[in-house]
Amino acid sequence: MTADVTTDVLVVGSGAAGMYAALAAARNNADTILVDKSLIGRGGATIMAQMTVAAAVSEQEPDHWTHHLRDTLDSGRGLCNEELAAILCEEAPIRIRELDDWKIGWAREDNHMKQVMAPGHGRERCVYVDFLNTGPAVARTLRTQVGRTGNLRRASELLITNIVVNDDQVMGAVGLSMATGTPVTIQAKAVVLAAGGLTRLYRRNSASVNMGGDSYALALRAGAELIDMEFVQFFPIGHLAPRLVGMDPIMWDPFRYKLGGRLLNSEGDEFVHNYGHLETSDKYTAPRDVASFAILQEVAAGRGSPAGGAYLSFEHIPETTLRAAFGPVIDRLAANDIDLTRRGIEVSPIAHYHMGGVRVNSNMETSVPGLFAAGEAVGGANGANRLSGNALSEAFVFGERAGRFAAAAIEKRVNLWSHDATRLAVDEITAGLHVNSRQSGPGLAGMLVTLQELMWRDVGLLRTANNLTSARTLVRDMRREIGNHPGASDHRFAISMQDWFDMRNSLITAEAIIASAQTRTESRGAHQRDDFPLTDPEQTYNLITCLNGEDLSVTKAPLVSKSFDLIPLEAAE
Ligand SMILES: Cc1cc2nc3c(=O)[nH]c(=O)nc-3n(C[C@H](O)[C@H](O)[C@H](O)COP(=O)(O)OP(=O)(O)OC[C@H]3O[C@@H](n4cnc5c(N)ncnc54)[C@H](O)[C@@H]3O)c2cc1C
């Protein structure tokens, strides 16, 4: 029996990484299909990004990718996969210029790309699109290129439920058509997994609904390995109060890049410099792990703001300067009754990005031949803490590479299609069409709230062995409770089936974070343990998570290192 659809390369997820992967695969002559459970190029984190992209393009001041690499490694607290980090930094300028050629509209000044300084970067390195339009501009530009490319088909509203492996090699995938609730089988010689991150697992997050950890769960169930799952990045200055409608909770970062701003405790004092980082008034330099920890400690010491965070103040900045920097955004704030010249706003950490993820080699291939990964799905390049702007660079660079190497790999692949190998995955979906189950409907919505609450409380900014153990027990109970297939889908668009597949992925991903966090008995970067407050140099290794049957195992692996010379900046221009 043949598959419903046949292609050379299947790309799962159409954020920046997926769209770049699909473009690269197609322009390397592979017949390519790009699928998304949302609309193509309109779901996930990419379109939500408002800030900056890091790349040593040397337009604002002399720079070189080795300096970007130095900053990335410093920020990663000793755990970066240096090979991947070097690729990210070396190839980011190529992708930024390519997007410029495609008329993305990077902000310009005196005929050069404007670059701002972001925390942890030693130079003015981050490009952006005004005003807070970086992500929408990236998504629009890549969508246009995707639309113009031959041998590249697209399918929206197709939720990939399983990557199918036969004889230990990828042979395609099975998806749920969200319009009809029926299974779709896809035969592919290579699959690129670019289904984004996991921050929706946390109560306070900057995520959209489709960021529940599908990448990691799909990879695990296909037999691939995950790396350093404990490192969830908390963005320190997520909006907390007053109420803000229709604007992004992490929008205060660009304000700080351009205008500085002061982070204050309830006593009106700046405090980040008390936590090991010399941040001076009006200069925004503290990396995310340090700033998040500092806010947490101020609140614990009783010096938090009324809503439980810190104050961010721009009161010292004249309105004309605010308007020159943010134009129409100032009016949108006014509609929310926020006047930055009169009052500080309250901010606190919010789950924002995942440094861990699918383990790949420098070709972006996983341990399963034919299965590639790209974007936020991939772990390792950013170690224990990511620099601002590196996530979009990573999505472009790793996406392009994954598509290119997937296209190159199809030459060597034999046709492994076997209808039998898809049977379990297809049956999961058809079972949902025929059975009645108490798991359909509100049961899963309630379970998601419970999961988000427990991840926030027990697996969030400050962790302990006891909290991690009880969280893992609860997550395992929930994994058992949801069973082996979705409940009845009695609505159009198979809503309860989607919820079930989302929940299955979220639960296994949550357990992978917890299992890794239990194993790392130290504090490092984004992983802070109340019971092990110090960094332990003996634990300078990566943690690898695998799925054996229904159980997760975590093992240690040596770091991937790479030597390089810092190129002097006089020679860099
Ligand atoms: C609010 C916000 C602001 C940010 N700002 C910045 C910034 O300024 N600079 C920066 O560098 N980074 C920023 N980041 C991080 C950065 O945007 C992301 O890391 C990056 O866009 C991830 O791209 P991606 O292509 O890997 O994933 P995404 O853009 O998240 O795309 C993943 C896609 O996969 C689809 N998908 C998921 N599961 C499935 C499935 N089972 N089947 C089919 N499709 C599936 C989703 O629908 C989605 O469209 C921000 C993130 C957020 C949330």
Descriptive account of the structure:
The chain is globular and about 70 Å long. Strands 1, 2, 7, 8, 9, 10 and 17 form a seven-stranded mixed β-sheet that branches. The protein starts with a strand and ends in a 16-residue tail after the last strand. With 573 residues, it is α+β, with helices and mostly antiparallel strands. The mean pLDDT is 94. The chain has three domains: 5-232 and 352-419, FAD/NAD(P)-binding domain; 236-349, Succinate dehydrogenase/fumarate reductase flavoprotein, catalytic domain (Flavocytochrome C3, Chain A, domain 1), CATH 3.90.700.10; 420-557, Fumarate reductase/succinate dehydrogenase flavoprotein-like, C-terminal domain (Methane Monooxygenase Hydroxylase, Chain G, domain 1), CATH 1.20.58. The protein is built from 13 helices and 19 strands. α1 packs parallel to α4 (134-148). Flavin-adenine dinucleotide binds at residues 12-18, 35-38, 43-46, 48-53, 134, 159-160, 194-197, 206-207, 210-211, 214, 248, 250, 353, 375-377, 389-392, 395.
Could you write a compact summary of the structure shown?
Helix content is 35%, strand content 18%. The chain is α+β, with helices and mostly antiparallel strands and 573 residues long.
Identify the overall geometry.
globular
Quote the beta fraction. Answer: 15-25%
Radius of gyration: 23 Å
Average predicted confidence as pLDDT: 94
Question: How does CATH name the architecture of the largest domain?
Answer: 3-Layer(bba) Sandwich
**CATH class of the largest domain, anyone?**
Alpha Beta
CATH topology annotation of the largest domain: FAD/NAD(P)-binding domain
Helix content: 25-40%
Domains (count): 3
Count, helices = 13
